[in-house]
Write a structure and sequence with these properties.
mainly beta, four-stranded antiparallel beta sheet
Length: 123
């Protein structure tokens, strides 16, 4: 099972930006899909964004469309999430996840997870 490690979380004012990064232990296969999920206190883990390692199949939750951008660095084996125009409702622990096949929106579809990184948005 591949190991995933998120970084880049922190405290930001509403309207600000953060960039999260997920490091993957070893070269990803072309069949992989990567995704970002988030979980706020008392709520279920929800899909944020996903993509194929090959660069296609990009998907976003409606709540982050046009504000967040998912990307990958094939040289560094990382999956990044650029978050702009952050809102208080974006505050959550953000997790990186991996599966074989197309990116999907269900957390139970993914079999590898990182430890999470906290994003706090203050108004």
């Amino acid at each position: 099972q591949r190991q995933l490690a998120e970084s880049g979380g922190g405290l930001v004012q509403a309207g600000g930006s953060l960039r999260l990064s997920c490091a993957i232990s070893g070269r990803p296969y072309s069949s992989y899909a990567m995704a970002w999920f988030r979980q706020a206190p008392g709520k279920d883990r929800e899909f944020v964004a996903g993509m194929r390692w090959t660069g296609g199949g990009t998907k976003y939750a409606d709540s982050v469309k046009d504000r967040f951008t998912i990307s990958r660095d094939t040289a560094k084996y990382t999956v990044d999430l650029q978050m702009n125009a952050l809102k208080p409702e974006d505050m959550a622990v953000y997790y990186c996840a991996l599966r074989v096949g197309a990116p999907t929106t269900g957390a139970s579809d993914y079999n590898s997870w990182g430890q999470g990184t906290q994003v706090t948005v203050a108004s």
